[in-house]
Every structure is written in structure tokens, then in C-alpha cells.
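Hi! If you just cloned this repository, the fastest way to understand the data is to look at a raw example. We've pasted two of them here, unedited. The first protein comes first, obviously.
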Amino acid sequence: MKYLYCLFLVSITACSTSGNHSTPYPSGKSHECRNFAASLLNMNRQATAAKKAETPRRNEEIEQVISCHHVHIYRIYEKSMLKKARLAGKVTFAFSINKNGTVTYLRVDSTNIKDGDFLADLSAYLKTLQFNSASHDGVYRYPIEFMP
């Protein structure tokens, strides 16, 4: 990106310093300079867009999506607490997200919670979450702690 920017500055400087000093471009060459500058800007935009598309999802993005659904997650927890009042603990999920942002695989990676129905309900809900698109599939781990 620095190279493109420097090249852009050099091309504008070359266009503005040669030829007629009353116009920013040499006589008869203004369209060439404009086209050259426009093509450099377009290349810079394309490079920036390609770099952005290549970046994988960050853990902050995963946390943001899951935290947006915390009300429903804790509703599942409270429903299970009606059956087991002392239900508490930590569960870590491992899941795959495809390029389109859909959860394709989810499993309980580790837990100290012994309620299989609660874990099944929670897993079923987390499989329905939709994440932002990315350039490639990714595997993530996310812990959730439940306290009464």
C-alpha cells in the first residue's frame, strides 16, 4: 500500500511539474495522468478489499455474536435450573464456521456440567447462530460459565 501511495504521489508530481505551470497537468497529457492516477487508486482499493476478505474471524467477532444472544442462552439455562436448582459450571464449545458464517459443526469440548439435556439444548441453539462472512472456514473454541 505504501508503494502504491508513493507511486501515486510521484505520478501526480511528475504530471504537475512538467509542461505548462498554469495547469496541474502537462498540455495534452491531462487525460493520461488522470487515467494513470485513477488506475492506481483502483488498484489500491482492490488490494485493500482483497486483504480485508482474507482476514479470518477474530475472537472478538465470535464473542460479539454470542453475547448478542445471551438472553436466549440464559433462558435455556434458567429453564434447566427449574429441574436442577444447583446447576452451575463451565462449558467450552468447539465449533466450525463456514465462509458464509453458518455453524457447520459444534461439540462440547470440555465441561463440568453434568446435565446432558441442558447441554443438548444449548448446543442445538448455538448451531443456529449466524456469523459474518469470511474468506475461509474456521474452527473456534468458546467458553461459557453459568452461575446461579
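Ok, and the second one:
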Amino acid sequence: MAGSKPGPKPKPKPAPEVIPELEEEALHPLKQLSDRALEVWEEELPHLRKFLISRADVAVFSRYCECIARIEEMEEAAEDQPFTVAGAYGNIMKNPIFQMIENQDKLLASLAHKLGMTPTARKILKGQMKDAKPVELPSVPDEVARRRERLDKKARGH
């Protein structure tokens, strides 16, 4: 509006102290994860130890791990594939596997952001977590170790 003076900026609301419940079962992976997704869980969980994660994050983190496993599988399948293929009417189109990989990449970026694994998300979390007390997260669940052992035996041909 012409001639009106802006008022004082409102003070930002203080961020709530975010200290999740960290019972031992809070970080167990979802049972339906594939073997490769469980390997990703084991590899990636230490990176999340910098952040406070709660039971609510387990589903998102599980989806993140499954997404990485799916991307790896699709990229392996796409290694010898052409980028373009003939469509149903003879038109040239993007090979559908590359579109599927692109869709999974977008999902992965979204999940990474939700988990605080992107620079923007970390900046937001840093502001919200500045007064939160650090906590030690429980170790990777035994289920991951059991599946890894089974995969190692399978790889050795036992």
C-alpha cells in the first residue's frame, strides 16, 4: 500500500525442543525391506546418527533404503539399454527404464530431504535443533546382521 509503513517484523516462534523417544525398537527396519535395502540401511544409518531421528522416521528411512536398492537394480538393468526406443507407432521416445530411474531419483531426493540429508534440510534442522541435546542412537538391529550373514553365505556358494 502506498504511504503505509511496514510494522516491526514479528519475532520468530521458538522451535520446539525435538528430542524423540529412542526406545531400542525405534530403529528396527521394516520387515518387508529387500536384502539390498537392508544393506543400504546398515550403510546409511551411521550417517543419520548426526541427527535425532524418531520412530516416525523409520518408515521414511526404510523407503529411502528401498529406493536406493531399486535405483541400483534399474541402473544395472539399463546398462546395455539404448536411451531411446521406438514407441508403439514407430516414434522415437525415451526408454521407459530411464524414466523409471528418473522417477526414483526424484523420490530419493524427496526422502533425503525429509531425513535432513540435504543442505537445505540441514539448515532448517540446525535452526530447529540448536537447543536440543545430542543423544546416542542404538546400534543397527540384529536383523540386518543376520541378513548380511545370509547374503555373504549365499555369495560364497554355501
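That's it. A detail worth noticing about the second one: Residues 24-146 form one domain.
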